[in-house]
Structures are given as C-alpha cells and as structure tokens.
Amino acid sequence: MIRSHTHSPPPEGEALEIAPGVLWLQMPLPFKPDAVNVYALRDRDGWTVIDTGLDTRRGRALWQDILAGPLAGAPVTRLIATHHHIDHIGLAGWFQDRGAELWTSRTAWLMARMGALDVQERPTPQALAFWRAAGMPPEMLEERSHERPFNASDVCAPLPPGYLRLQEGQDIAFGERRWRVRMGHGHAPEHVTLWSLDDDLVIGGDQMLATISPNLGVYPTEPGADTVGDWLESCRRLAEFARPEQLVLPGHKLPYRGLPTRLRQLETNQGAALERILAALREAPRSAVGCFEVLYRRHIGKAEFGLALAEAVGHINHLHATGRVWPAGKTPEGAALWGA
C-alpha cells in the first residue's frame, strides 16, 4: 500500500517539518508539475539543502525569504543536487557563490555544467534531424527551426568549476544522520538517491515519485539511449533496499510510504505502456510521434510536445534494444517507421 504522509504541501515560502530536523519546502515551476520539492536538513553549523528550483527573479526572492525565515538566518553550508535537471540544480551556482559546497554525482555536474555553457540561438542540425526522424509534423519542424530553443542557462545560475562527488555505495553524514548513496538511471544519468542508515528516510528525487512517472526522454545528444531500460534496471536494483515503512521524500508531489509497492507499480505501468506500443506496431508501422495516442492516451499539446516526443523515442529505443521492434522504412517527410 502507498500512503501519502500528508494531504497538502507547505504554502509557498513556508516550511513543514516532515521529519525531525527535516524541512520540506516547494519552489514554483512555470510548467507541469508546477512545483519542485526542496528539503533543508539541520546541521550543527547551518543547513544542508537538497535541490534548489529554477534561477529566476522569483526563485531568488523566495530563497531570500526562506533563508531569513524558516532557516532562521543560518547559512546553507552544503547543497546536494539529486540530478542535473534545471528545476533541481538551477540555483546551485547561486548557493555556491554564497559559500555552500555543491555535492552531486560526476555525471550530474558535467551535464549541468555543459548545459549551462551550451547556449544556442537556433536548433542544431542534429536536433532538427532527431525531431524529423521521430516524426515531428513538418509544419512544427519548420516553425521550430526558426525559433530560439530553450537553453538551460536561461534558468540556471553559472556553475563555478568545482564540486564534491557522490558515488554509488558512498556514506555521507548530514542532517544528524548517516546516509548511503544509491544511484538511479533513466530519468537522469547517475541520479543521486540517499538512504538514511539511522531512521526510515529516503531522499528519492525524481527517481521514485508517488503519483506520476518520471519522464524517460531521449534527446539529440544521445539519440540511441535506452532510458527506459536504464530506469527499469534501477527500479529492480533499488527495490532490494526498499521497505514499506520508509518515508520517501520525492522531487515532486507528496512524500509517501510504501516504496516496495510503488516500485512494482512503476515497473508494471512501464510494461503496460510498452505492450500498448507493441500492439499498435503489430497492426501497422508507426513513427515515435505516431505512438503518442497509444502511449499517452490523451491529446498532446504544443507546450508538452517536445517532452512527449523525447519519451516516445525512449520507449521505441527500448523495444528496439530488446529485439521487439525493428526499422520499417521512412515516411516521405523523413520520419523513421517502426514495426513489430
């Protein structure tokens, strides 16, 4: 059974003590989900903060209020970023400039640093080819080819050239607890999860969410990635450490208990999505975008099209990697077709 620890999140700018010495806060996002969870854990010399939200004027102002209010003016001495996505690491550089150490995985730091430095005014040829092969409609592809793409640096503070590495199996002490690092993959490479050795807390980031599944997108930087396979392997491996009584502090939505059940649910849900795609491809070849209807079972609007495309490619890549689908030609517009 999965049980939410509380029925509602803390109001913006306020904190809720979710466990002894552990404050839960939320930072707003301009996209779905509309908030990211951040956590502050008391240390003798200040606070350890888990994840940050975006680097926006509103985000900085909120943190200034939080530092003066719920954190009582004590310094943030350590920041732990669970992974490199903008909503989790966007203000890491800002905290470092204020004296905090940044702790994260090597891949997360490299990806975040690369993203912050890679500013593009137009989509790259690789991105356009990737979108075309995935089946993006020609009129949308033409429109996007002339638009400035979203850049991580738009909402990420510059990252100074230095961090402290977290590795699989490492033990670290903060927040008056000892924690063991376990890495997840699929949603983000080398995604940090933290498992308390002294009580039943698990800091799960986006690796194990309660009511939504993490996006398992594939992008032009690594178009052949098997993100779904990486994530399923992580679910099975992390299940070895999961217990029903653990309180999971996720990156979005509500904290919850019942992690073993949730990991099984997530794996089952992915299996069902893959089977729906397979059934459709047995009827006729489709592109990745052509699988939207069976994968998502709802209309995909323009605002979420890019993320939906990336995740559809992730599912096709996994089916191809496991020998269940194969290339079946191309459309006149250049979209890759897949059959089963």
TrEMBL record:
Domain Metallo-beta-lactamase positions: 35-252
One family name in Pfam for this protein: Lactamase_B
Gene Ontology molecular function: any one: hydrolase activity
Record keywords, A-Z: Hydrolase
Annotated SMART domains: Lactamase_B
Single Gene Ontology BP annotation: antibiotic catabolic process
Domain of life of the organism encoding this protein: Bacteria
Record family assignment: Belongs to the metallo-beta-lactamase superfamily. Class-B beta-lactamase family.
The protein's name: Glyoxylase-like metal-dependent hydrolase (Beta-lactamase superfamily II)
Natural source organism: Paracoccus lutimaris
